[in-house]
Write a structure and sequence with these properties.
Radius of gyration: 27 Å
Strand content: 15-25%
Shape: elongated
Strand order of the largest sheet: 12-11-8-13-16-17-18-19
Structural class: alpha/beta
Number of strands: 19
Oligomer: single chain
Helix content: 25-40%
Largest sheet: 8 strands, mixed
Length: 421
């Protein structure tokens, strides 16, 4: 089976393991969730540790295993709050009779029961127990309470049990549980697209990453851009219903799900491909690429040998891709980016006018917490004067969240009634 791992690369799963012989299946479940690309952290009750060691889960998940309510190594010792905020889904597998009872009663005397009360994420439980314990009235009463509280209960399977009984109570196979988790996030993504199809029917072209300007066959001029912001925007545009083409400079990133990717290297090649995409039809052009301002006037045919203490290289100015596209007679909605180290908003506002853009997003790349290699960003968005829209400050957040906010800003501008000039 093939699938795009990047779809789930920003989804965080807490797998909670409770006491029961089915805990061995949870080790396989971690591996299957990781195969799909999920980020997985494991929480273990004391009972679970009697059946399988935390070291096993640490090796499989690549993350420390959480076992104690008050963790001295966690921020302010409040490990359960940190985990509760981190999770996109809490999956309890196996879920013991005792844990189900705690959840139903609202107890909070260990890490898992406290996490259950503290998280806003969806909670799934996969009960695993003796068939008579499963059928017991208190257990069924507790399960009904969980369902009423919004917990998703995964029905156990019937079969032979470790105790020798036969009946309902077996935890589903790890592959089946992982498949259910994968399908849940796929469906959630589709539901968001249907509900918030902000760019439905639009064709979006995005440039991302750096360009490389050759000096000789082995050397080049480039910059520190990783392309993360552009790739996040491509994913957000696709989720918003757009048909997305991503013109990617040399970066080491997986192609977002559903996005058409075209790799380019130099500024000239990126411009040529941008013009080609414009001819094919483009509603929105988003220029996030950090295009080199200059290129070598004459690229050496062979490697330049070391000779002397200085090497003089003549540079010529590269074409301005976003400004060139904006000057075309059939121009799309133009979105530019300004990565500055000082006077950020002043320079961005100047570029907005000089390059005849509809919208520009600027950020301060001198900040270590939102620089080129960071997974987070913060931006200020300006709109062209004719839109009569106030600037928007996008506070520090993950690049995926910033990308979603940018998509919303583009949608708002596209549907804003422009006053005649």
């Amino acid at each position: 089976m093939s699938f795009d791992l990047s779809v789930f690369s920003n989804k965080n799963i807490i797998l909670a393991v409770t006491g029961g012989i089915a805990a061995y299946k949870s080790a396989i479940l971690v591996r299957r969730l990781k195969d799909y690309g999920f980020n997985v952290r494991v929480v273990m009750t004391h009972g679970a540790q009697a059946f399988i060691t935390p070291l096993t889960f640490q090796a499989l998940s690549g993350n420390p295993v959480h076992t104690e309510l008050l963790d001295p190594e966690a921020e302010a010792g409040m490990g359960h709050i940190e985990l509760a905020r981190w999770a996109d889904l809490v999956l309890v597998a196996p879920a013991s009779c005792d844990t189900i009872a705690k959840f139903a009663a609202g107890l909070a005397d260990d890490l898992l029961s406290t996490l259950y009360l503290a998280t806003k994420a969806p909670v799934w439980v996969a009960p695993a127990m003796n068939q008579q314990m499963w059928a017991a009235k208190p257990t069924q009463r507790n399960l009904n309470t969980l369902v009423e509280d919004g917990v998703h209960v995964i029905m156990p399977e019937a079969g032979s049990q470790a105790c020798g009984d036969v009946g309902l109570g077996r935890m589903p196979e790890p592959e089946d549980l992982a498949e259910q988790v994968k399908n849940y996030f796929h469906q959630a993504q589709r539901a968001i697209a249907e509900k918030f199809g902000l760019l439905a029917g639009k064709r979006v072209v995005i440039t991302a990453g750096p360009t490389r300007e050759a000096i000789d066959p082995v050397r080049y001029i480039s910059n520190h851009s990783t392309g993360k912001m552009g790739f996040a925007i491509a994913a957000a545009c696709y989720s918003a219903g757009a048909k997305v083409t991503l013109l990617a400079g040399p970066v080491s990133l997986d192609t977002p799900n559903g996005v058409r990717r075209i790799n380019v290297s130099s500024a000239i090649k990126m411009l040529d491909e941008s013009m080609h995409q414009l001819e094919e039809g483009c509603d929105v052009f988003i220029a996030t690429a950090a295009v080199a301002d200059y290129r070598v006037a004459e690229v050496a045919e062979h490697k330049i040998k070391k000779a002397g203490d200085e090497l003089n290289v003549s540079l010529v100015k590269n074409p301005d891709i976003v400004a060139t596209i904006a000057q075309q007679s059939k121009r799309p909605f133009m979105v530019g980016f300004a990565a500055e180290t000082r006077n950020v908003e002043e320079y961005a506002a100047g570029k907005l006018v000089a390059k005849k853009l509809d919208m520009i997003a600027c950020n301060d790349v001198s900040r270590a917490d939102i620089g080129f290699a960071s997974d987070q960003n913060a931006m200020t968005v300006f709109f062209a004067e004719q839109y009569q829209m106030e600037k928007r400050d996008l506070e520090k957040a993950s690049k995926q969240e910033i990308a979603q906010q940018l998509v919303e800003a583009i949608h708002d501008a596209l549907h804003h009634e422009i006053e005649p000039v």
